[in-house]
Amino acid sequence: MGSAPTDPDTPTGPMPAADFVAALRDLSDRYWDRHPFHLRLHEGRLTKPELQLWAANRWYYQRCLPQKDAAIIANCPLPEVRRHWLDRIVYHDGRDAGDGGARNWLRLAEAVGLDRAEVLDERHVLPGVRFAVDAYVNFARARSWQEGVASGLTEMFSPGLMRRRLADMREHYPWIGEEGFAYFTSRLAVVAGEGRSTVDIVVQHCGTREQQEAAVAALAFKCDVLRAILDSIDYACHQIAP
């Protein structure tokens, strides 16, 4: 039997770099900045128990990010990419105990009134949040390293959101001590640069149409993971007695 005919209207060659980046950026509407929970957060309409639930569940995401990044490194055969990506693990885990982005998130959890022990033992982590985050880590382990890297391109959408979140939380939740915002202030210093360098890696190493489309799908998957996290938190917040 002969092979199936190729549809002449189906593109087979790689997208030009500008079109590829545009396809990635077009996913910004799927980012979690417009989720109803985040809208309430920015408008100052969350109660203290709701902020605590958010902080405790977001902790699970934060603490799993180094495992996701380690999976990408394990799958990548290129030492120059591995060296570059290693900085992300160091950023989140810190070079020493008590440092790093994960520890800064614990400071936020404490600033909203949680005890560090109850965050670390994950008693407040919702099943839907755990399922979504674990799916993200498993995605990085099972898929190509290019897809794993591309999934992190939500960084393209986050610098403006993070600046606005910091300003809105300072305004609407003045009872949160300034030490609780260390995660956001430190993250702002690196997220824009990480986003640009990640785009460069994806564009350089996704040289075929198939790889490019897989990268776009990976970023869409990550957006869905983030929204699933907030879906679970948002639903649980509606069950909290006023």
UniProtKB/TrEMBL annotation:
<dbReference type="Pfam" id="PF03070">
    <property type="entry name" value="TENA_THI-4"/>
</dbReference>
<dbReference type="InterPro" id="IPR011845">
    <property type="entry name" value="PqqC"/>
</dbReference>
<dbReference type="InterPro" id="IPR004305">
    <property type="entry name" value="Thiaminase-2/PQQC"/>
</dbReference>
<protein>
    <recommendedName>
        <fullName>Pyrroloquinoline-quinone synthase</fullName>
        <ecNumber>1.3.3.11</ecNumber>
    </recommendedName>
</protein>
<dbReference type="InterPro" id="IPR016084">
    <property type="entry name" value="Haem_Oase-like_multi-hlx"/>
</dbReference>
<comment type="pathway">
    <text>Cofactor biosynthesis; thiamine diphosphate biosynthesis.</text>
</comment>
<comment type="similarity">
    <text>Belongs to the PqqC family.</text>
</comment>
<dbReference type="GO" id="GO:0018189">
    <property type="term" value="P:pyrroloquinoline quinone biosynthetic process"/>
</dbReference>
<comment type="pathway">
    <text>Cofactor biosynthesis; pyrroloquinoline quinone biosynthesis.</text>
</comment>
<dbReference type="GO" id="GO:0033732">
    <property type="term" value="F:pyrroloquinoline-quinone synthase activity"/>
</dbReference>
<feature type="domain" description="Thiaminase-2/PQQC">
    <location>
        <begin position="23"/>
        <end position="231"/>
    </location>
</feature>
<comment type="function">
    <text>Ring cyclization and eight-electron oxidation of 3a-(2-amino-2-carboxyethyl)-4,5-dioxo-4,5,6,7,8,9-hexahydroquinoline-7,9-dicarboxylic-acid to PQQ.</text>
</comment>
<keyword id="KW-0560">Oxidoreductase</keyword>
<keyword id="KW-0884">PQQ biosynthesis</keyword>
<dbReference type="InterPro" id="IPR039068">
    <property type="entry name" value="PqqC-like"/>
</dbReference>
